[in-house]
Structure formats: structure tokens, C-alpha cells
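Protein details
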Amino acid sequence: MESSKVIDLEMFVPRAEVDPVYFNSPYYLYPDGQMAVEAIRVIGAAMGESGVAGIGRLTMSRRERMVMVEPRSTGMVLITLRAADEVRAPQFSRADGALDAEMSAIARTIIERRTGKSDPSMFRDRYQEALRELIEAKMKGLPIKPPAVETPAPVIDLMAALKRSLAQETPAARAMPKKRGRAAPDRRQRALLLPVAGGRKEKEEPATKPATLAPNERRRV
């Protein structure tokens, strides 16, 4: 079964109903020919007006995959979907009783002070940045100092943790970086220090290799 260039859309669903936990890999869709350009524009506009996404199937690298297609500007984005048996059901504990009013007020204040506009340029891989700096330093023969690792204290009192997070909030901590350069000192606000269950099961080895796109078909996001 070879890779195909045709997406078989089986149904349209409200975009808000598709849970992101099923998302796998995103790709930009590029039309093949003038007729496909017009088709993508017309279908994309209709989908955008209706607030829906298309669910269908596509053969990628000899493997049939469930996919979701949604309009994006004047084009479309395709996202491969995980199968239902690849996503475990959540096992959240049951919450009983009313929320503490003071803690809720502090949490809302922290959220309001941190709320801003989404900026993809802030999505940085600090591990890769630090690795590049380490390689450059070694090539230049510069001394290498291991970064200081700060271990947060265990949370005993949730109210105290929220108040401490609120006290640490400063205008400088909320300022967005304006340009990229060498990694600046980490000025991010410390975590909220909320107690959560630690550890998770190691990811099982997938039964099949991840699907990849055939050359010259579409570019991965």
C-alpha cells in the first residue's frame, strides 16, 4: 500500500469536540494543481464558517492513518490522530466539597497577572539552546561551569504555596523577551508548587514505526 495524495474525508465534526490528546503530528497541506487550490479555498472557507473540522483517512508511508483537517488562513493543516486504544482514559480523583474562597481568589489573581497573548517565538527548547552553548564553549576552549540546579521545597501548605507564588510575581517576570540571543538567566517565576502525584509509567514501544510523509508531498509543521 503506497502513500496516497488523496484524503478521504468521512465526516465533519465541531472543532471544539476533538480532544487534543488524540493529536499526533501536524502537517501543512499544499494543493496539487490549480483545481486543488480552488477546492481548498472553497472547502476551507465553508469549514471555517461552520466551525468544523474534517475527519478522514490517508495512507502515509504504507500505513493508513486517521487524520483531522482544519482550515488555516488561506490553506489547511492536517493532523494525524492517535487511535482510541492508544489513549488511556484519565483517572482523576473525585473532588468533593466547596473550593476555598481565599485560595480561589489568589489563584485567579495569579492567572490574571500572567495572562497575555500567545507568542510562538516563546516556545523555546532550552535544553537544545544550552547544548549548543556547551558545544560552542568547548570548541572555543572556554571553561564550562555546570548550571546551578535549584530544588523546590516540598509543599506542605497549599495556601502558603499560593501566597508565595503571588508574592514572587513581578512586572519584570511577566515581561516577554523581545529578541533571541545567548540564553539569559532564567527569570521565570517559580512554579506554583502544587502537590501532584509523581512519576509515570514509561512509554511503551509502539507496535509500528511513526508514519512519515513521502518526499515532495507536503511539509511537516
Summary: The radius of gyration is 23 Å. The helical segments are 34-50, 101-114, 126-139, 158-168, 171-174. DSSP finds five helices and five strands in the chain.
